[in-house]
Amino acid sequence: SNLTIATPDDIDRLLSSNFLISQIVDLLAALITLISTFSAINLILTKSIFQWSTKILLFQNLCFANFFQISYSYEAMILVLKNLEFRGDSNFLKTEAQCAPIYKFMLFCTSGMIYGQTGLIIERLFSNFSKNFKSKKSIKYSLILLFFILFFSGITGPLLLFDDPLDGAVLGCFMIPKASARRSTVYFAVCTVLTLFNFCVALWLMRYNKKLEYSIRFKVGARFRKRQQIDSTETICFLSVCLFVLMFIYSVGVSLLRNLRDYLILADFYFWVVWLYTVPIFAMLLPLLLIYRIRCSHASRVQNLIGISHEKQSQDGHIK
Question: Transmembrane residues, as ranges (predicted)?
Fold first, then answer.
């Protein structure tokens, strides 16, 4: 149909080396995500001292990351093949109606990663300040948070595409339908607010944890009892602070770029938009940062135990 026939601008975009490189980078990011997730899950189960309430939400975040990467890499692979096999046939666009289910699913996963970070921060707030946040109750709180994350992630796509006629065509299914472009500004605003909330609360919790650790430095029993809470909170805050930049670039950058589209040369707009779409990199870093943090934390605990053991042996030697 005429709807799926690409314009010269669409063809230039598909054949640009910048677009091809960006899709290959995103495919590599997806591969790294899938491979590193197995290692991250193994470390969470065997090397971490996270509460199960934290583990449940981390597993949920990793699921969203991998589901996103699988759906996105499918689209990216199609675009790479279209680029490499292009022989002048301009009938290669997809209709927005065809792409709607895939786009909604990708929005579900993207939102799940962002809302999931907020869920982890809220879970850490409960852990630090609720006296009743014990084993079974903590899992109950975590499952409630999980339900809300899934619910709000699930309605994001349908709300964004609500009453959209879906009568246009796009290069790939990860692109926003034209009629929903304005409404997407609200979505990006929500992402920005949540990302800033995660970042600010994470910094505050990290500072609070440092003070807590300092106040109980001479109380060995209290230090060990609080170690699980402190270690979990530090890891979640570390994730939120590290991933803040990527999600802020995505939510603010893409929103600004869409508003400035009329003032930019189309080639410049297309050049920047592929690199501001940082969600594949965000998804890749989630398991990698978890692996790094758990290994560092485990090594630190081992060193602390060795230090305490040497200290005890030294004291026993003096007594003898």
Answer: 20-45, 57-81, 101-122, 143-162, 185-206, 235-257, 269-292
**Whole-structure pTM over 0.85, yes or no?**
yes
Considering all CA atoms of the chain, what is the largest pairwise distance in Å, rounded to the nearest integer?
Answer: 93
pLDDT at 300 (0 to 100): 74
Can you give the pLDDT at residue 236? 87
Distances, alpha carbon 304 to alpha carbons 42, 121, 237, in Å: 23, 27, 22
Q: What is the DSSP letter of 180?
A: G
Instruction: Report the CATH fold assignment for 2-298.
Output: Rhopdopsin 7-helix transmembrane proteins (1.20.1070)
Q: Which residues of the chain have pLDDT under 50?
A: none
Contact yes or no for 30/70 (Cβ under 8 A): yes
- For every residue of 206-263, DSSP letters joined together read HHHHHHHHHHTTT-HHHHHHHHHHHHHHHHHHHHHHHHHHHHHIIIIIHHHHHHTGGG
Token pair 């006629």 is at which residue?
165
What pLDDT was estimated at residue 222? 58
- Each domain of the chain, given as residue ranges in start order, spans 2-298
Phi, psi dihedral angles at 50 (to 5 degrees): -65, 150
Q: pLDDT digit string (tens) for 64-104?
A: 999 999 999 999 999 999 999 998 888 999 999 999 999 99
